[in-house]
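Hi L.,

You mentioned the student needs an example of a multi-chain input paired with its predicted structure. This one should do, with 742 residues in total across all chains.
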Amino acid sequence: MERFKWVPALLVMILVLSGCNGFTTGGSGAEEVEAENGKVTLDFWTFWGSEIRRPIIEQIIEDFNNSQDEIEVKHTFVPWGDIWTKELAAIAAGDPPDVVINDINATALRGKNQQAENLSKYLEEDDISGDFYEELWNATLYEGDSYGIPFNTDTRVLFYNKDAFEEAGLDPEQPPETWEELWEYAEKLDVKNGDKYDRLGFYPMFGVQTDVWMMNADQVNFVDENSEVKINTPAKLETLEWLNKWHEKYGADNINSWQAQMESQQANPFFSGDLAMLVQQPTFYTQIRDYAPDLNFGVALLPEKEPGNGHTSWGGGFVAEIPAGAKNPDASWEFIKYLTGKEAQEYWAVKNFDNVANIEAAESAASSDEFNDNGKMVYELAVEAMPLTMLTPTSLAAPDYMTLVNSEFDNVYLGKKTPEQALEDAQAAVEKLIEKNGN
Amino acid sequence: MAGKRRFNYKTREGLQGYLFILPWIIGFIVFTAGPLLFSFAASFTNYNVTSQMDFIGLSNYERLFSGDQLFWTSLYNTLYYVLFSVPLTTIGAIFLSALLNRDIPGMRLFRTIYYLPAVLSGVGVYLLWMQLLEPGTGMVNTVLAWFGIQGPNWLFDPEWTKPALIFMKLWSVGGGMLLYLASMQGISKSLYEAAEIDGANAWQQFTRITIPMITPVIFFDIVTSLIGGFQIFQEAYVMSNGEGGPVNSMLFYNLYMWQKAFEAFDMGYAMAMSWILFVIVFALTIVNLKLAPKWVHYEGGGK
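Structure written out for the whole complex:
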């Protein structure tokens, strides 16, 4: 017996470790950098470590450092999967970075939780709110105060294969305008081969999900700013029925095997002409440029539900913000202003082929000489789509409600629930979550 | 002189022992017991890391049990996973080590090959498996098709996502295999020789000698893989993009806890969840410890 007395004790230790494993967050990473020659040194965290993005953000930082002699910014790359949990731990430890790039949709939630500094006192002196797309700016507000300045953004547009259009007897200069046309065109573009397809016309849930089409239909988020749940609405029901029709048309087997191909970049069936139309971010153009340079394609706004309903699209993006408790907020603000100013934004837009939040920068990037004709075509359309693009700001009353909603949509496509039943259940589940959260 | 008399030999040895494990004890108190107690206290608050920590009594626990369907979903998913993965990996590892416990040429090579998956781990492996399990062109379904079997839509079909993860887990039984193999090699040859003389066949030798002799390792393996099974997180996080997969079929307990902690910033709630998991795992381990004397055989009777 004596020999094994330690066994229970050891097990308790293991249990202890298992119990709190979910909270292991990395250490703060940010090192205090001693200021040289009286300069203020800022630690700037981004998740842009790729071969393409890193040199661009570092060039912007260098330009800023050279533009004045009071602030020196140092870039810290933190991987996507870690950056915000690390930042949260650093804030809690009282040693946060000075500027961080964060998700635009949860900016208000971070403001509410006081994870980020309130920028109103800077904006009172220096109102830059008008420089950005309104939808983006509004997403940064909590009770009227801004907690982050929009940096980059995106939207969703329709890419289509002009050669396939011509083959199917469609006018390559007339992309589909409405959901009805989308369906008709897809029927014409489909090339069936037994149960399988040699060419797929269009499937609305490659590239985007159910929620984007629902927003396209009624321009209302699932939970609105007053914490009212707007899931079970007539327009959303029609959308779900319409999407389910597509799902039944092609069948789960075809959809799953095509979906898997979409995920491997180079083998995307759109590049080989096997998929005629696809909803994607404008940056998808860079993949076409790199992997399928000869593809004859066009771009269009997202089709609208009915004529006059609006070509509403969906996007996200990132803000530059000052974590709560940062040591030199004034200097951080100066840097953020530079980062979101026209010059840096235009450089980012052109070099990355990315949508930026600064309107003036976005518009002048669209006519940049660095883009070729196709690049210009896509970028111009992206800029045109921006004012029609909605965000999905995190609901303060129920930040994580999408887990409840997505599974109900899955149930419809799996044939386990009718669209009516699914929306009713999703509506009830989210209402209950909000009620339980005590808001 | 007085110092020598103050401690007898036994006490002195004990104190020396504590001295040696002091770094570990300090580490435990500071980095484990501290956060543990903190999380217990904070589970009764609306803690969100940065701005609030008000005492709200049992409200987190009440919300969990009375109004959170995803809590039950995640608990069900986790129990399902544990219930199948623990016995299957244990049996798999014993079976494999029995096969690899033979004296044939080239055995070292086989052992290395079967152990390799246990060395590989992390996100790379999960991404690899996502390709292997891809329904149309993935290797797994391609091989099944050779035998005329139409493979399932593994990670897309909610009925098959958890079996897919268990299947993936079985691929890396090499870690457990190593323990069993070491234990099997320690079994005295004379036992088998005696059995052979008495006319026992291979199966009888396996069930009457090998299995009883390795029960301490089986016990250890079951306890640790049970705890590990309840902690499943990474697989689901990577393979479902942190969302929980179709119809939340991969929303495991720790994944849901992570969502509550770092997406909803409802840290108090997440801490309450972690304590419920703690109690469940603790209870199961107690049961295991109580049952152990009935089937675990320690050589030399040193129980």
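You could point out the following to them. Chain B is about 70% helix and 0% strand. The mean pLDDT of chain B is 91.

Best wishes,
N.
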